[in-house]
Amino acid sequence: MNPYPSLNPHPRILLGPGPSMVHPRVLSALSMPLVGHLDPDFLAIMNDVQALLRYIFQTENRVTIPVSGTGSAGMEASLCNFIEPGEAVLIAINGYFGIRLADMASRYGAEVDTLERPWGEVFDPDEIKMALRRRKYKLLALVHAETSTGALQPHIREIAAAAHDHGALLVLDTVSSLGGVPVEIDAWGVDVAYSGTQKCLSVPPGLAPLTVSERALAVLHSRSTPVANWYLDLSLVEKYWGSERTYHHTAPISMNYALREGLRLVAEEGLDARFRRHRENAVLLWEGLQAMGIEMFVPAEHRLPTLTTPLVPEGVDEAAVRRRLLNEYNIEIAGGFGPLKGKIWRIGLMGFSSRRENVALLLAALREILAS
Amino acid sequence: MNPYPSLNPHPRILLGPGPSMVHPRVLSALSMPLVGHLDPDFLAIMNDVQALLRYIFQTENRVTIPVSGTGSAGMEASLCNFIEPGEAVLIAINGYFGIRLADMASRYGAEVDTLERPWGEVFDPDEIKMALRRRKYKLLALVHAETSTGALQPHIREIAAAAHDHGALLVLDTVSSLGGVPVEIDAWGVDVAYSGTQKCLSVPPGLAPLTVSERALAVLHSRSTPVANWYLDLSLVEKYWGSERTYHHTAPISMNYALREGLRLVAEEGLDARFRRHRENAVLLWEGLQAMGIEMFVPAEHRLPTLTTPLVPEGVDEAAVRRRLLNEYNIEIAGGFGPLKGKIWRIGLMGFSSRRENVALLLAALREILAS
């Protein structure tokens, strides 16, 4: 029995909201033969990965690790460890991933209050402060870069300070920002932040970078109930990644090889140069789209450089355009969903996908498709 | 900043309890460029992976998928979807992974009753039937192949029938058996079974094969409370892997490439030939060890061919032997833990690691080390 042919995927140019393209050096690291998850070689790799993640997150947090799942597992780890049944949490929602935060928090027995803004807008710190005054919250969670809308939430430092003034932890979703725009965990005072490997880090999906402040760890360690999730229980996971090396689960070896190589590439480029590259290529894209008469959904001051969301021009079948990009040019971009379905495209220029040649090609292909 | 050298892990011969060695074709699949998680190419890969997993599990179950985490995530998915707070579950414990099942189930609010046997022994179906008569259980969970002891639980068909007679689901841990010894989900009547990729399937760790019967799905779909775990909620996950293709989380693309290739290798060899190979190499190992005066911890009739647990000879420092195997011969084997710490070794001959040359080398290395 083997009717299954050899793997032969199309050579896609990945310009959607992730996965982004993966550098050949990372693909090569993926294909290295394996060592065991308690091998001295792997323990050294774990140390490197943690040190490099601290650089990317701009933090000294001891517990800075890749969760052994995709970004969503990182999101869940960021909530389940710090919530006990009956506790109140505040979730600021301005897109799909805010909704998901609220859904997850409720599954852990939290009383979830939400603060909502239309998709595409961002929050003013004052409205968050006002909400924090209304009730005592265990944590405030919000999204730094909303992958469903393309908006970048500013004023994280001010929001973190407000959370702390009211005795709440700040949990921040950095899935589409980490490694593409500045994320300064310690300077901003963020307590818990998570991301995914397949966005601006340009590593395949499968791991979720996570960093946890000492303040948040103190909350974890003083729980009166066990974490209602074994796989993501950081009180167990931190012992495997810490000096004890106590076995918890078998870490995804090859994915950690890949993450280490992806992080080395970030370190070689340097964060500042990397942020500049992401911004420059995004500006090129915005200018090129505008020259074609296409406007952006998010105003320039809150626009994410890593994920651009142009408005679909009047009378254009957006799904047909995406199909032609894929079938005729091997280019992947995404559509909007929820209230933005049919209204926007989502174009990612993340990590190794953020290259001038990709911008030029996409603009050329769009021009050809929209003209025909 | 880049003080981190290129990745250069030692060329290990992996004869521990997993990860096992990975076939070059699987490593090669891992390094293929990525497509998106909703790309038609990837949807076809998902279909192939599901069909191949059905073959490996010997099942027609529609919901037969790789969970996007390691084997432990598969274990947790097998419990959290079918347990509601306050329900009684029965866990049969004869080693570490039974204990973990009980820990996980309790985190989901189950009233956990346990049936215990000393590590290394197996259960008689009659004692399980007796326990099932004492109380009404939502599910019975037990381990087919205990990775902590090397014992293989027989009579699964009889145990499944008893569970069904008493209105309980049967959840089976097949982490160290799937692809190495017969696992017949439909013929035995198992409702939920999970495994890991890094054992007898010889794919890197990071995915957890899972299969769910229609009876178990009916239990899931009639829950009165939401699954207390978003990432592993099968009512959401099944829609991404099913015909709806509703986005849930971004599947680990590269790991699914690898799994597909690993499963193709199993299908090419054929399950029967594969089981025969595992048994033949295990017998060679047992005979070789016995010729050196080393006895096995588990009696022959319940001995797992994929993981052998020899007793450490009197006066031998078992950790020193393992260190020498690793440092002088690049061979990884594992020690015992819990009540078996210092008493046994754990030698895996799983998947691509189960080769005659590996048995010969390990025996030769052990002979040299024990003689010096």
Per-chain topology:
2 copies of one chain form a homodimer.
Chain A: E1 13-14, H1 24-30, H2 40-57, E2 63-67, H3 71-80, E3 88-93, H4 96-107, E4 111-116, H5 125-134, E5 139-143, E6 145-146, E7 151-152, H6 156-165, E8 169-173, H7 185-188, E9 192-194, E10 208-212, H8 214-221, H9 234-241, H10 253-269, H11 271-291, E11 307-308, H12 318-329, E12 331-332, E13 334-335, E14 345-348, H13 356-371
Parallel strand pairs in A: 1-12, 3-4, 3-5, 5-8, 8-9
Antiparallel strand pairs in A: 2-10, 6-7, 9-10, 11-14, 13-14
Helix pairs in contact in A: 1-10, 2-10, 5-6, 11-13, 12-13
Summarize the structure.
Two copies of one chain form a homodimer. Chain A has 372 residues and is of the alpha/beta class.
